[in-house]
Design a protein that fits this description.
The chain is α/β, with parallel strands linked by helices. Helix 1 packs across helix 2 and helix 2 runs parallel beside helix 3. The radius of gyration is 19 Å and the shape is globular. The model has no long low-confidence stretch (mean pLDDT about 90).
């Protein structure tokens, strides 16, 4: 059971601040922290700004409200960081280092010495520059420390009827830019609108819309290719109407 693995770790913290992205991993962590320590001993931070999905913010707001947790929405101007805006391969490292240093400073100002994030055991198997930043800052990852996998997180979330238990991963919009492609606010808005409308109007989910020099490069799971081709004329009209100069389909399929 997830709670059996996680509770001893959380109990050792006494009180904890949680970086609440609105995704399922950090949501499960927040719920477990509240059930273990009580809402008065938990503080939640959620970053806001053009690189973050509005749906994630709303999910975070709802959960924090339902759990009775103090929830701080922290504006984070990621595009002000040159190392983020120019999009080198280690962009995520610079973003995480700056953002979580801000979270730590705010947490300490409220008497919370321990800051946690929702990294789980499967994340450690991937090449994620942001994990190095968290390690350098001393951010704790209780799910990973307890050896809890993504599948376990989802099972526990379903059992507890946590909203978003089966929702597709939703990393920040900057992940839609290949390394070296500058991250610009107007392009972030285009990507967000394209993904949102493809989901709402055509039922294509999960999907990614990658951005490269004005081109929309779509990734959809093999099971949705038939739907894509049946509606491709309307899909092309929609995307060109948003301002994309060229649209292509990546046949490698959907990826994070």
């Amino acid at each position: 059971m997830l709670s059996v693995k996680l509770s001893p770790i959380l109990e050792s913290y006494t009180r904890v601040a949680v970086a609440l992205s609105g995704g399922i991993d950090s949501s499960v962590l927040l719920l477990a922290a509240v059930e273990t320590l009580g809402p008065d001993q938990v503080l939640a931070f959620t970053a806001t700004g053009p690189v973050f999905l509005p749906e994630d913010l709303e999910q975070a707001r709802r959960l924090a409200r339902d759990l009775g947790v103090s929830h701080w929405e922290v504006h984070f101007p990621a595009l002000d960081l040159t190392a983020f805006r120019e999009n080198p391969p280690d962009r995520c490292y610079h973003c995480k280092k700056t953002l979580f240093q801000l979270f730590k400073t705010l947490a300490r100002s409220q008497g919370f010495e321990i800051l946690c994030d929702g990294t789980q055991a499967d994340d450690l198997k991937e090449d994620r520059p942001g994990l190095k930043a968290l390690e350098e800052l001393g951010v704790r990852s209780p799910l990973a420390e307890a050896g809890i996998s993504k599948a376990e997180v989802r099972r526990w979330a379903r059992k507890r009827r946590l909203p978003g238990a089966d929702r597709s991963p939703s990393p920040c919009l900057a992940t839609r830019f290949p390394p070296g492609e500058p991250v610009r606010e107007e392009a972030l808005f285009l990507i967000y609108q394209a993904e949102r409308r493809l989901r709402e109007h055509f039922g294509i989910e999960p999907l990614r819309v990658r951005y490269l020099r004005g081109e929309a490069r779509l990734e959809v799971p093999p099971s949705k290719l038939g739907r894509f081709f049946r509606q491709r004329t309307k899909i092309l009209e929609l995307l060109k109407g948003l301002g994309f100069r060229r649209i292509s389909l990546d046949l490698k399929g959907y990826g994070v």
